[in-house]
Specification:
globular, 201 residues
Amino acid sequence: MNPLQLVFYFLIIVPSAIIHEYAHGWMADRLGDPTARYAGRLTLNPVAHIDIWGTILMPLMLFALSNGSFLFAYAKPVPYNPYNLKNHKWGPAMVAIAGPMANLLLAVAFAAVIRIFPTAPAVDFFYIIAYANVLLLVFNLVPIPPLDGSKILYAILPDSARGVRDFLERYSFFLLMIFVFFLFELIVPVIQWIMQLLIGI
């Protein structure tokens, strides 16, 4: 990834992460929890969502440590109170999946533009937007806290598997770091498969 691609990728993945977080707040609000709205986070204004570590410092560090082969960013998590949700079992999972689904919709939209206008001058830029959103989609569905996949997993797990949840919560930071730096390649084929499905190239 050259410096120009880094700039493009950074300008793409940060807004995509912001839309991701907005979707969480929007879904929580629809399900009965106005916390994000009262906190002024139901907005697409970047100022309300930028996290110094996740939006700026971590992406630059990952880019440097991976020699330009990997970059990831996240926006400040939107606050919500799960006890306000109408459905206490599936509500948190629905709020969680709203973020990745927003990224999927963005990826589908830009993939459709690529399919309709495959020779457009900005097709490479559209491809990066689609790829960034597929990356956010797949990565956030990994079932390690605080990623969205963990909330979905918790809704599926039976009460007898409480120990699994406790383990994931207790060692979440270490598990996430191990995944990012040593196991990330496991989801690359999934990302590539989705891109193939969306764009066909």
